[in-house]
Amino acid sequence: MSLPLFLEQTLNGVQLGVMLFLMSAGLTLVFGIMNLINLAHGALYMLGAFIAATVADKSGSFLLGAVVAVVATAAIGALLEVALLRRFYHRSHLDQVLVTFGLILVFNQVTQLIWGAVPMRFNLPDAVAGSIELFPGMNYPVFRLVILGVGLVVGLLLYVMIMRTRIGMWVRAGASNRAMASAIGVNVEMVFIGVFAAGAALAGLAGLMAGPILAVQVGMGEPVLILALVVTVIGGIGSINGALVAAIMIGLIDTFGRVLLSPALGSMVIFLAMAVILAWKPKGLFPVHG
Amino acid sequence: MRRLLLAATMAAGCVVAANAADAPIKIGFISTFSGPGGVLGQELLDGFNLGLESTGGTLGGRKVEVIQADDQAKPDVGRQLADKMVESDHVQIITGVNFSNVMLAIAKPTLDAGVFVISPNAGQSQQAGKACNPHYFSTSFQNDVPAEAIGMYMTNKGIKRVYLLAPNYPAGKDSLAGFKMGFKGDVVGEVYTGFTQLDYAAEIAQIRAAKPDAVYFFYPGGLGINFVKQYAQAGMKTEVPLFGPSFSFDQTVLPAMGDAALGAYASAFWNEHYDNAASKKFVTDFEAKYHRLPAPYAAQAYDTARMLDAALKSIGGKIEDKPAFQKALETVKFDSVRGKFRFNTNHYPIQDYYLTEAVKDDKGRVVMAMKELIAADLADPYVQDCHMPAASN
User: Domain for residue B385, yes or no?
Assistant: First the structure.
């Protein structure tokens, strides 16, 4: 492998990792703070892509589509929390898996009813649709650089918000001891709705960023969800920086595994990596609790 | 007393027989209606229903009852549905099946029960070769042939170095094997990607480094959308031309690919711009009814309904006479959207293949335009393994 090709594949790996991070961030947030396994995260990702594609197509503005999609998925997330999922915080993980898996089926069918079974069009604005020459002989799609940028900014914002602000303190307090946090005046109920809405918005953001690269179709969330769960577990459940490190690691392992190994081995190398890391660190790379 | 009973039974038997001639023909339509493959079942059903509408809702003058079911793209589910339709609904024909692996699970038990199986899409090699069956017919194509046709075209055009990609599963491997039967140049790369892989950036970078003359890929449905979009975004479309199977460039995926598909080539036996009267009527009627352009799936299913009608008309609607129905199908004449249509001895079609190119039509939609003829009367290679058993009940 020549040096320019090696650099390009490294960039591909990091970029894939950042895309996985966008998906995993919301998952790990909800999982870590509310102790809720939300498989419907993949459905929110799908809705983010569909809503953004529709609005962008009708209005001609990608940005407007993005804003509407993020707001809408946050609202859907808040609604889900209030109407259904808050009843499951203290139930077993199996109950949570069952109810959120049911939600996947419901959302898939509703999406098919509204948008039809034919995959959607989701065109990029001309400014980011093409590729640029990063260095001689290496063109790179502009939009993938945008994904890279957005992912890193989101990671930074989340870190600052949770670790350095008062809101973040409430969130951490509510997560570690709900009763005590309530007693000292934190409105835990509102905090949890907010966290869930933020998690949903992150899923929507991941979906709308993936939409122009991937097929916007019913069921698009499930394959990504599996990778996001791998990232969440490796990174340490609930850890945002763990998710970022694990996502980029998985992106690189997957990319080079595919290029260098046989297809059978290449497609399972990330699961081998997960097994090795969990054998070494059962709570993930950056354990949050204990 | 015993004689009376016997007479009564015989009379009852006559009544049943008389009813059978008037009774509706029962057709089981098993297809994928949910999940990412759900679009295929919908196309097939819409095409089939439109075909039935064009024959006045009857087949060979008899009323039709279509029982529809969703196989969820799962062979075991398809098998259960087929068993139920054969045993409790007493269907005479099972059709609709889109995936080859589902068809493999359905075909044997259904054929063993003496029920006809008409594939409007699934084109597995087994029933074209050793497992060919008097009651099994395909109105679509055998999986290898479209790939072989595009390989022939690329050889004829003097393309020397080609890079191949497919998902790592049986149909992907079959397609690349079919391609290599038609292509005589060098294969500089042959990559099998994971079946659920979403991102092809790494593969595209490898293609760029290998500098082939052309790329042939086999990515059905969403996989194809992912690949074609990412290929265009990487700026590769202008560097290395893209060739694919017709279902990677049809109306179930082209709207989602948009401009990214423009300039890509495929091989096809039918496309939405095919210039003959039957095809034009089909496309016009389809657009009027469903407000979108049809994909080849719909055309195949439309042909299936019209072929059944023509075959049954020639025998007065008597589908119960299985040897006669089989014979009628083998020699059927009808106005196919493909212009001409005939079955090979293995009951798979012999048909013409054309080159098609993704272009914009006058309404700004991305469509496949018909280019040159690649090969006339192309048959699949498995026919030599088929020793068709004698007709039976």
Answer: no
What CATH number corresponds to the domain at position B28? 3.40.50.2300
In a domain, B322, yes or no: yes
Domain count, chain B: 2
Rg (alpha carbons) of chain A, rounded to whole number: 19
* Cβ-proximal residues to B378 (8 Å cutoff; 6+ apart), any chain: B145, B148, B149, B350, B351, B352, B353
Residues B266-303 pLDDT 10s? 999 998 888 899 999 999 999 999 999 999 999 999 99
> What total of structural domains would you count in chain A?
1
| Co-location of B200 and B234 in the same domain | yes
- Co-location of B168 and B41 in the same domain: no
Report chain A's mean pLDDT, rounded to a whole number.
90
Looking at the structure, tell me whether residues B53 and B119 fall in a common domain.
Answer: yes
Contacts of B354 (CB under 8 A, 6+ apart): B267, B268, B269, B271, B370, B371, B372, B373, B374
Q: Kindly state whether residues B60 and B160 are assigned to the same domain.
A: no
* A-proximal residues of B, 22-81, CB under 8 Å: 34-36, 38-39, 42
Pairing between β-strand B136-138 and β-strand B116-119 as defined by DSSP bridges: parallel
Q: Is residue A290 part of a domain?
A: no
Option in B198, B205, B256 nearest A5 (CB): B205
Q: Which chain A residue is nearest to residue B33, measuring alpha carbons?
A: A117
**Whether B215 contacts B238, CB under 8 Å:** no
Which of the residues A1, A22, A118 would you substitute to probe the B interface, choosing the one with the greatest number of B C-beta atoms within 10 Å? A118
Q: What CA–CA distance (Å, rounded) separates A159 from A28?
A: 13
Judge whether residue B10 has pLDDT over 80: no
Distance CA B81, CA B69 (A): 7
pLDDT digits (tens, 9 = 90+) for B353-383: 999 999 999 888 999 999 999 999 999 999 9
- Determine contact, residues A26/A151, Cβ cutoff 8 Å: no
- Which residues between 233 and 262 in chain A have a beta carbon less than 8 angstroms from any beta carbon of chain B? 255-256, 258-259
Same domain, B120 and B214: no
Q: Give the range of the structural domain holding residue B151, as residue numbers without chain letter.
A: 144-268+353-378
Helix locations, A35-141, DSSP H? 41-59, 62-83, 93-115, 126-129
Return residues 245-264 of B near A (CB < 8 Å): 251-253, 255-256, 258-259
Nearest to A118 among B192, B206, B252 (CB): B252
Residues contacting A163, CB < 8 A, separation 6+: none
Shortest distance between the Cα of A35 and any Cα of chain B, in A, equals 28
> Is B170 found in the same domain as B74?
no
Give phi and psi for B190, each to the nearest 5: -135, 110
> Do B45 and B66 touch, CB atoms closer than 8 A?
no
Residues of A in contact with B194 (CB under 8 A): 258, 263, 266-267
User: Hey, what are A86's tokens?
Assistant: 């808050």
Q: Are B191 and B206 contacting, i.e. CB atoms less than 8 angstroms apart?
A: yes
For residue A73, what is the domain's CATH number? 1.10.3470
The number of beta carbons lying within 10 Å of the beta carbon of residue A114 is 10
Helix (H, G, I), strand (E, B) or coil at B318: coil
Query: How would residue A172 be classed by pLDDT, with cut points 50, 70 and 90?
Result: confident
Query: b or e along A45-63 (b: 16 or more beta carbons within 10 Å of the residue's beta carbon)?
Result: bbbbbbbbbbbbeeeeebe
Residues 6+ apart with CB under 8 A from A102: none
Question: Are B75 and B177 within one domain?
Answer: no
Which of A41-55, A166-180, B340-354 has the lowest average pLDDT?
A166-180
Do B256 and A115 touch, CB atoms closer than 8 A? no
